[in-house]
Amino acid sequence: MAGQLIVGLDVSSRARAEEIVALLGDSVDFYKIGYQCFYGADGFALGKALLAAGKKVFFDLKLLDIDNTVEKGVAAIAETGATMLTVHAYPQCMRAAVKGAAGSDLSILGVSVLTSMDDSDLKEAGFARDTAGLVALRAQQARDAGIGGLVASAHEAAMVRDIVGPNLSIVTPGIRPAGSAAGDQKRVMTPAQALSAGATHLVVARPIIEAADPAAAAKAILAEMNTGTRLA
Questions:
Q1: CA distance linking residue 114 with residue 122, whole number of Å
Q2: Backbone dihedral region of 183: left (phi > 0), alpha (psi from -120 to 50 degrees) or beta?
Q3: In this protein, which residues make up the domain named Orotidine 5'-phosphate decarboxylase (predicted)?
């Protein structure tokens, strides 16, 4: 289960990020570096250091730009040896990202609908589809683009699995252990529920990195993950 847990290093200090990694030790081998860490904590260099130490790195940068820019940016990330990278799940963007990652082990993940958004948020943003409908469309487009997987709420994981088949990764943020606060997330599930729904990887940040004892929090989540057995 340890390889399925991705801890989000959502901090602004490299020293704090390294402290968290040290506290978690061998219990966690996969880390997400998103905007806050990438821009505020020298996250690119941190990612390279983690990779050199034998950890896996997920750069959650949600790239979206013209095709050439996306392709070149993805190629630069691929050279680091990172395991995963997010792009927005627009068809042109995903196809460009696949070209940029060609020949590497970098898995491209398309971000479908953020877990902080619900139907009313999509309507405000101008989308005609509801959350489930837009996630389904993005899943079809991701499958056709040939990327490695999707980032989606665990609430849509079973639907996504039916669309993309058994081989693509489904990475689910918005994971909250039983009894914890949802925070600003609107579509959340517990670790066991998410795995049972078809998720392959779970992203957890605040419930671990803000815990009084991050190592104990991570071990509790891993124990809870053991009760959710479905992997695909």
A1: 10
A2: left
A3: 4-221
Question: How far is 94 from 105, CA to CA, in rounded Å?
Answer: 16
Number of H helices, E strands in the chain: 11, 8
62 tagged catalytic: yes
Q: Which residues are annotated as a binding site for substrate?
A: 10, 32, 60-69, 115, 176, 185, 205-206
Active site residue 60: yes
Give the span between the Cα atoms of 201 and 175, in whole angstroms.
10
Nearest-CA neighbor of 63 among 37, 29, 95, 17?
A: 95
Q: What phi, psi does 59 have (nearest 5°)?
A: -85, 110
Q: What are the extents of the domains in the chain?
A: 2-225
Q: Are 28 and 54 in contact (CB under 8 A)?
A: no
Distance CA 6, CA 203 (A): 5
User: What DSSP state is assigned to residue 187?
Assistant: S
Q: Which residue in the list 29, 65, 119, 121 is annotated as catalytic?
A: 65
* Location of structure tokens 């991050």: 214
105 catalytic? Reply is no
Its pTM stands at 0.90
Q: Whole-angstrom Cα distance, residue 61 to residue 59?
A: 6
Express each pLDDT in 31-84 by its tens digit: 999 999 999 999 999 999 999 999 999 999 999 999 999 999 999 999 999 999
Predicted pLDDT of residue 179: 53
Query: Using CA atoms, how far apart are residues 230 and 4, in angstroms rounded to an integer?
Result: 12
The greatest distance separating any two alpha carbons of the chain, rounded to the nearest whole angstrom, comes to 46
Q: Does domain 2-225 have CATH number 3.20.20.70?
A: yes
